[in-house]
Structures are given as C-alpha cells and as structure tokens.
Fold these 3 entries.
Entry 1:
Amino acid sequence: MSVTSRYRAAWEGFWREAPEETGAVFWDADPAVTAARHLAFFEPRLLDPGLPLVDLGCGNGTQTRFLADRFPQVIGADLSVAALDHARRADPAGQAAYRLLDAAERDEAETLHAELGDANVYMRGVLHQCEPGDRQSLVDGIAALLGERGRAFLVELSEAARPVLGGLAQRPDGPPPKLAPVFRHGIAPGEVADAAVPVYLAAAGLTVLASGELPLSTTEFASDGTRIELPSKWILAGRET
C-alpha cells in the first residue's frame, strides 16, 4: 500500500466515524473564528477575487459553505469520499460544488485546472497532516491549480504548536474527546518546520507574497472555559506578475 493510500484510508476511517453535528470534529470551528478571520487577510490581496476558489482539504465543508457566500464559485475538494458525503449532506441547497481530489497527484490537479482555469486556493491545516514524502507534491498540485493569476492562502500549525498538542495528548485523563479520534486513526499532526513551507513553495515556482501569525481555533475548550487555539502561520503565495 502506498503512502498516499495509507493516508486516504486513515481519513476515510476518520470521516466515516465522525458525528454529523456541527463542531463535533476537533478543527471544525465556527467560520466566525476561522475562515472569517482568514478572509480579512487574503481577500484584499487576491489578484482576481472573481476566480473560482478551491477549499482544499474541505472535510465536512463548514468553511466551504461560508466561503460560498462570499465568492462566485467555490469548490470544496478532499481526498476522502466520506468527508465529501458529510459536506454534501450539510449543503442540501448546493451552495458549493464538491470534488474528490488528491492534490498531491499532479495529474488530478492539472485536470481540475483544465476545467476551472486559474483558481484561488484556501487551505487550512493540511500540509502538516501529510506524510513528509507527499508535502512537496501537494504544493506542486496547488501551484497547478493557481496557474498564473491564482493566489493560495495557506494556514499551517507553527513549530510552537507541537508542545501544545503534546500537552493535550499526554493529559492524565487522556487527550480531549475530539482530539482522540485523530490520534486513533493515525492522522496525528506531524511536524513541519516553519522555514520549510516557503522552500516547498519556491520549489513549486511560487513566491511568498505576504505572511503572518494567527491562532488556529479548535472546537475544544480548556478546563477554564477558554477555547483551545494552536499557534499557526499563514502565507499568501502565487506567481509574481
């Protein structure tokens, strides 16, 4: 079984077991504290906001539906059939389109680009959950989706998130209930060095156009009632014009 096949199987198992309720998944926070925050940083910097927007690694589509209210054409893409089933059930009006896509397979990314033309890409917390051998391929796939005019807004856990996650995983009473299934299915977040992401982008022919730091919100809360947030970095990338 290939690395990608193992990764796909892990996500299928996770999403088949995932509850339907809003906020039942660790990272499935309300768009008000996720995509809405990100929108303020990437929308003004898009070269062409009218391009199709691909929500890459869309999962159950919570952020996709929010983005579909703000952009003319939004496609939620994921490599898990079960995740897309969740997304479609939660979107009976068809606010967005949904597409089975393994962006680490360049042929698949190029096929979608041939259908859409240049696209903008929103991706939250996907690269750090990839197997190390697939990370450059994933970024290459993003570059294929962007074409010449698209922009990618990537949000990834920073190195500072590792001790936070480690502390959650090693709590005396076990990890938080919504984090436990992630570990159980073998998709625990990996470590991506902060300096590695711009290197992946450069190798794919993309330039970092803007960057910053912003906590990544989760749906779990600490014992004092505060929302658990993970340190993260955001990058806007594209081809220089």
Note: The chain has a mean pLDDT of 90.
Entry 2:
Amino acid sequence: MRVRNKPWADDFIKDHPEYIVEDPEKWIGKWSQKFSKDQPIHIEIGMGKGKFIIEMAKKFPNINFIGVEIQKSVIALALKKLVSEKLDNVILVHTDGAGVNTFFNHHEISTIYLNFSDPWPKKRHAKRRLTSPKFLDSYAEVLKKDAPLVFKTDNRGLFEYSLVTFNNYGMHFDYVSLDLHNSPENEDNVETEYENKFSKKGPIYKAIVRFNNKKED
C-alpha cells in the first residue's frame, strides 16, 4: 500500500506516544506495560490504515493488539483512527515487520495476522514474501506453542506459494479457503480496507496454520 506523504504525520506521531512505538527493541519483554491490562497479545504485520486491527480490538476487548507498519504516512492514518476510538488495547509499531523476533520474546505472541501482504511476484524476490521460510523462522520464535498464523490474500500466486511453504515447514493446517467471502466462515470475518475494496473483483483466500513441529527451547 502506497499513500502520498502526509506533512502532518511526524508531529502527530510525536504527539501520541501512548499509542505508537518507534523503538520496539526497547520494549522486548515489557509490552504489557504499554497496555492497561495484561492480556494475550495478537499482532498484525503490515497493518495498512488500521481498519482490521482497530475493529478486532473493539470486537475482542480481552485481547491486546499490536499493529506493525513500516510506512509513516500509512501508520499515521491508522493512528488518527485509533485516537478517535480511544481504545486501550491497541498499540501501533512503526518499524519493519521483518524483525519481529528482535522486539518480542520467545513465545510471547498468541496470534499473528498477515493480511494482503505484498506478493513480490518475481521469483528472485521470493525471499521478501512475508510467508517465506526466513519470515516463518521469526514467527515460530515469537508465537506461543500451538498458536495460529492467520493469512489472507487476494493473490492466487502468493497463496499457492504460501501453502507450499507452510507444508514444507511442517505446519499444521487448521483451515484453508479458496473463496472466503462465499464461505460460511465469512460471517465472523473482519475486513481490511484493501479487502473491502477488492473482494468484489475476485476471491479472497485464507489459511490458518500452526507451527506444530517447532523445536523445544
């Protein structure tokens, strides 16, 4: 997702340290201090403008949510929504999602969401896909044992690649849908901005998988 530069973004981010973190490595092992309650933590990597994570936080107040996004103008738009909602169970992290194992402890996270990640369609860019083996390594470190990784995309090529990668990694498949919006499970689906806009143009694919073969610490 690319948006135009927002001249107000820097100042707005600085004005709301209660909702946004720009130095996540300093909070490893201390994330509960950023929330009003010590609850399970779910993270969304590449959260875009924040519709999904904010709606999830409203729907599940007994869970703490962390949205990770690299683009400053995008995260500033999400921050605007969060400030207006005044939720106490959402924190936004302005950083690259490639390093989740550098700012979360082992087995600290209860669920990871990957929603409509960049497909990086060229073969030489496969290692940049958020479902590539090097990213799965980092997720396996931070997820609690038997915790789910929830993946949605509208890109058939990325979905097929991801299913193969999950299988080769030895993951357990809880759920796979080739057309989520025409499935009974869609009743509980929380949409992203992108999903709301593009689901009319083609199917949405979804998988829920678990690292059932992770090595014991």
Note: Residues 123 and 129 are 10 Å apart (CA to CA).
Entry 3:
Amino acid sequence: MTQLTWKTHELTVGDLAQRSGVPASALRFYEREGLIHSRRTSGNQRRYTRDTLRRVAFVRSSQRVGIPLARIREVLGLFPEDHVLTKEDWARISECWHADLNERIEQLENLRDHLTDCIGCGCLSIDKCALANPYDRLGEQGAGARRLLKSSC
C-alpha cells in the first residue's frame, strides 16, 4: 500500500482503513450514515481529508462505550461537513456524552450488583425484575416486550 507522508492531504478509502484500523466496508457504511464525508474524484473514487481519521476514532470510541450511531451522527451534525474539529469542539462534544455515560455507568453497576437475580429471567418484564423493570412499570404499558434502554439527550 502507498506510504503516506505528513504532506498527504487526502486519503483513499484503503489508506483511511489502514491508518484507522477500520475496515473499508465500515468506512463506506459510516459515510452512508453521514458520520464521515468524502469527495469523489473524476473516476468516482472516494477521497477523505486527514481530519477524517479523528472522526473515525471518535465514532469507534463512542461505539465502544455504547453510544448509538444515531447519537453520534446527531452530535457530529452540529458542525459543518467541511469543518475541521478543534480541541474546543471535541470538548463541547464530550459534554454531550456526560449524562449519557453516567446513565450507562449506573445501568452497568445495577447489572453487576443484581446479575445473580437476573440470570435466566428472560422476559425482563415480570414484577420481580428489580433491574430492568422495577415495580413492574413495563407491565402498566401492556403485554409484550418493552425497551430495556432509552435514548436520552
């Protein structure tokens, strides 16, 4: 594969995949989802700016902590497509995650502390499940499966 230098202003999808460690298929998916953007050459090949590496790293890190792609897209959508994100921008984005991450931490701590009671539960809507359905709140909404996690922010 082509050796990239600091002077390289644009990356091919293969270059971006190699540098980020993310498969080219995932990068194309991210682009379809509006998480990253490219320009097309006259031969219809994708070209990414170097700052796309940071966006890809941000997407992967956010996914690792359980943030849905829709939320990631929403936050990245606060900035123009061609805007190179600054340190201040990244700080602003991270503020959006605080409440979300604190909620996830609380859910994980509850899972850890009550896992023994939940093994084998399955339905997650019975009145005994203090973790997923305290006080049988979901039963008040009728029969059938209910959402375990709610999106916020």
Note: The first strand starts at residue 10 and ends at 11.
